[in-house]
Amino acid sequence: MTNITSMSGFLLMGFSDIRELQILHGLVFLVVYLLSLASNFIIVIITTVDQHLQAPMYYFLKHLSLLDVCFISVTVPQSIDNSLMDDGYMSQGQCILQVFIFTALAWAEMAILTVMSYDRYAAICFPLHYEVIMNPSKCQWAVRAVWLSGCISGIVFTTSTFSITFCKDKIIHQFFCDIPQLLKLSCSNDYLGVIGVTTFMSVMAFMCLTSIILSYIRIFSTVLRIPSAEGRSKAFSTSLPHLFVVSFYLSMGTCAYLKPTSDYPTTFDLMLSIFYTVMPPILNPIIYGLRNEAMKAAFRKLLLGGQFTKKKSYLSCFMAG
């Protein structure tokens, strides 16, 4: 760790300096990573091949799973390699690429969750017009907008972050190139551009959150007027998990980025970073897949090599959840 300031890259400190704990961390992350990949790819496969799962809800879920696969692949494999090889060095090029992809996917995940909340709002509050409101063309344009907005977010964050001058020891007390940790390496106020970008994106995230909250206020008021207890149960079963995912993702990310960073992060800081980088790709398949009868039926058919069903209407797919 001599003359770290002159290094062209950065040194990721990870979770521990103890070799045994480094190996344990690498193995645990490897198991978590493989489970996340398997569960998300299963969702992508069954929502692609089963024509019964072609409603907008499953179309957006497929893209959420694709985002989750990419999202966890940005940080975890590098962390596994660093832990098992006992080498936390990351070149500046790798760090730039990681920041770009991470921030792009983080915003895209927020955007797709917002789109999914609107989909639930249209399905429950306007069931007779649902197929018109969420027709395939509009769904495709919504997904394109999600990915495009993520790329723009990544470019803006990366450009502003790496326009600052790093003059301190290039030590990052994280298991990935975290923007708040990078800002601490600046000795001047040239990081104000990043603060401006973060503020703007926070306002945009708040607008998304407001839209989601308003959608769910309308959803719950409509659901409570459904005379059938079974109908209310099915509507809540698709809406409440989505609300939980949104709340969890936003609360963890907001807490991590708005709380003051310290020179020596605590275990809580590291665990918080795990909650918003590693946990969402693990929770999403569980919440959306295991609790959905149509998804479970399609998964059983995939395992047993059965024939997938023919395409059904949007509303029948929705009510199957």
What labels describe this entry?
three-stranded mixed sheet, transmembrane, 12 helices, transducer, globular, mainly alpha, 321 residues, Rhopdopsin 7-helix transmembrane proteins
Summarize the structure.
The protein is mainly α and 321 residues long. It contains 12 helices and 3 strands; from the N terminus they run E-H-H-E-H-H-H-E-H-H-H-H-H-H-H.
Can you lay out the helices and strands and say which pair or pack?
Layout: E1 10-12, H1 19-49, H2 56-85, E2 89-90, H3 92-125, H4 130-133, H5 136-161, E3 171-172, H6 179-183, H7 192-223, H8 229-258, H9 267-277, H10 279-290, H11 293-304, H12 314-319
Parallel strand pairs: 1-3
Antiparallel strand pairs: 1-2
Helix pairs in contact: 1-2, 1-10, 1-11, 2-3, 2-10, 3-5, 3-7, 3-8, 5-7, 7-8, 8-9, 8-10
Domain G-protein coupled receptors family 1 profile: 39-288
Keywords: Cell membrane, G-protein coupled receptor, Membrane, Olfaction, Receptor, Sensory transduction, Transducer, Transmembrane, Transmembrane helix
InterPro entries: GPCR_Rhodpsn (IPR000276), GPCR_Rhodpsn_7TM (IPR017452), Olfact_rcpt (IPR000725), Olfactory_GPCR (IPR050516)
Indicate the structural class.
Answer: mainly alpha
Strand order of the largest sheet: 2-1-3
CATH superfamily membership? Rhodopsin 7-helix transmembrane proteins
How would you sum up the global shape?
globular
Instruction: Report the sheet with the most strands, covering strand number, pairing sense and barrel closure.
Output: 3 strands, mixed
Average residue-wise pLDDT: 81
Order of helices and strands: EHHEHHHEHHHHHHH
Count structural domains: 1
Count of discrete alpha- or pi-helical segments spanning 4 or more residues? 12
